Amino acid sequence: MMAEEPRWRRRKEDRPGDICAAALQVFAEKGFAGARIEEIARRAGLSKGTLYLYFPTKEAVFRAVVRDAVAPNIEVIRQTVLASDQPFDELVRMLLPRVAEIITAVPLGAVLKMVVGESRNFPELAKVWHDDVVLKAVTILSDAIENAQDRGEVRPGDSRIHAFSLVGPMLLGVLWRETFTPVGAAEIDLPAIARQHAETVLGGLSIAEKAG
Amino acid sequence: MMAEEPRWRRRKEDRPGDICAAALQVFAEKGFAGARIEEIARRAGLSKGTLYLYFPTKEAVFRAVVRDAVAPNIEVIRQTVLASDQPFDELVRMLLPRVAEIITAVPLGAVLKMVVGESRNFPELAKVWHDDVVLKAVTILSDAIENAQDRGEVRPGDSRIHAFSLVGPMLLGVLWRETFTPVGAAEIDLPAIARQHAETVLGGLSIAEKAG
Amino acid sequence: MMAEEPRWRRRKEDRPGDICAAALQVFAEKGFAGARIEEIARRAGLSKGTLYLYFPTKEAVFRAVVRDAVAPNIEVIRQTVLASDQPFDELVRMLLPRVAEIITAVPLGAVLKMVVGESRNFPELAKVWHDDVVLKAVTILSDAIENAQDRGEVRPGDSRIHAFSLVGPMLLGVLWRETFTPVGAAEIDLPAIARQHAETVLGGLSIAEKAG
Amino acid sequence: MMAEEPRWRRRKEDRPGDICAAALQVFAEKGFAGARIEEIARRAGLSKGTLYLYFPTKEAVFRAVVRDAVAPNIEVIRQTVLASDQPFDELVRMLLPRVAEIITAVPLGAVLKMVVGESRNFPELAKVWHDDVVLKAVTILSDAIENAQDRGEVRPGDSRIHAFSLVGPMLLGVLWRETFTPVGAAEIDLPAIARQHAETVLGGLSIAEKAG
DNA sequence: AATGAATGAGGATTCATTCAT
DNA sequence: CATGAATGAATCCTCATTCAT
Description:
Chains A, B, C, D: It comes from Allosphingosinicella humi. The structure is a homotetramer. By secondary structure, chain A is mainly α.
């Protein structure tokens, strides 16, 4: 326990972060329209009026939540991929479990659900996510794939579709967990999916292994 | 076009279908909470009050839309899989493009988005989809996979995760198309994904090919 | 049983009466605003549209119901009172049970409730009831009382208040029955009230008895 | 009057009372269904939305109005009756004018009208009124009557019907005033009714007087 | 800065009334 | 005459946003 930090002493510079964290929970549970500003405020430990000192509108809170979930994670992926000059199969065997870890640690699934669900109401958010997260991630992957193709490690084919083949099952797992596990579906073991799918997909992508 | 259709004629039987079709559009665009009954009614070519002759609440319309999207499609998958006593790789080469076709023909992507986006607000719909669509589809697939494993056609491993490996990229493609294409992302060629991913994933699942 | 009268052969001249009878039930149960035209039509055995062939508005139906309940009953009272040249105490001993009978036979209580409950929304109905029913009844009574006072049969005092003393308990009984018996209150035996109250009130009104 | 009262000040505690007072007026005028929340709010000096900070539904407001009219008044009656060890005729001569006073001072007539008019739509309110107001009042009275009968002061007979004989005319007067006076009927002088009816009914109920 | 009472625009739902058949 | 599908005005209620304290 921390030394009895009085509620009113919470440093104001933490507020936006607190609000975003609370809002993420609520938006993920209720969707944008179903979320109530008052509940976000309550979970952030402040009053409705105070929340409006930090964000001008509910939409602004939503945008902040979705944008904030962008930056930290994409960088991790980039580092992981770029730093590696190892063979493609090694990269994949490391990358997929890493993605599973990240997805489990941060509420990426919840945000993804929000982006998918509200993409028509907030097209500019879908755009930000596309441009700054998804496209970047796919590009990093497909670049790596093309390099591996050039090196003869990966079978020919559209590198972007190969990227879908790599990460699609992981995404499916995340959405499954967010959507169906709360209503009684079996638990999803993301790391297990990562490990087994890595082997499955590599079996097909790695020409070397087959040729052997 | 018919010549000067009267403002309304007795077509009670067509109404529910018209309403569901219009509602699917609007719900897919705006989400449940963002959809306005009046707009659904207008797109269905009738007035607000008339819609309420056929559905008691907005929720009832939503449920009808989501439930109606269930029945017709799952059966197609089952027929495709069960009817085949062909080798596993043939099945997959036929199945994935078939799925791509279905997804393209009917608005399954839109409904899927709705189910994912509103699963917390309508858990019983998520449950129906899980029980009647997703679980059935996965079970059909994993049964086929287990049979193929028994016959030595497919490498060992959790059959459900193998099923994820099979269809995950297709689902990712659908959601991508629903979410990002409207905001400027590249078009998604589902049949191309189906063809290429079939080869990719089979390369790994088919022990025979490797052994050869 | 009558010889199978087909529904569609119901003579149209009966319709207004059928509608009023059905409407009386529904208005008494739900009040004016709570009553639905469709339910009135259904109970009258016809469709909503058909009802509008006989009455232009819901208000018109309500007015007809309340007015129709006026005529038949006030006349009975008048006859009973005027026809009697018997002593006052005989009159009362006959009149109160007669009122109890009428009230029990026709749904006067229900209409009374409606008049009381909707008097502010339909002041002209309250006026009709006041002018044509209540005031007449009171006048008939107070005239009889004044005559009896002149004959030395009834103690002095405001004749209208004496009339209240005569009929008040009966009215209380009717409203009690309409209001509280449906929610579990004891049954009200109107004839018993009539008999006992007649003796009670006469004991006071009849100077002769006391003087003797 | 206070000088220039600010548009609003913190007066959360006064609100429910203000709202109930305004609602009583409006419900009495229009009935439950005819009353508009916005008008209640306006008469209470606040906006529609503010009213909903204090009551969750229109029904809740109605219930509060009716229930609030219960408590204060029944106690007065009980005290009046219980405190008296005077002869029965003295009690009645004191009680009826007391009832007339109460009815005149508080809007009991309006509430009674509401209870009668809406008893079918709000049976639980009719029950509360029956159990907590009417039955108690009647029981208090009939107990007093039975005691008086035991002492030989009151003629035999069903004590509850005797109670009706006592208070029926007063109730009739109240409802008359609520219903017919607004449409042009003569004013009702409740105290006069109380005084004259007390003498009238006692003349009959008091054996002593007659025997003498 | 913080609060929370107050506001009112917005949207779901009802139901009297109309009218094509 | 009879029907019942269709309409839309009316009203309850919600909740993002404001603002006096």
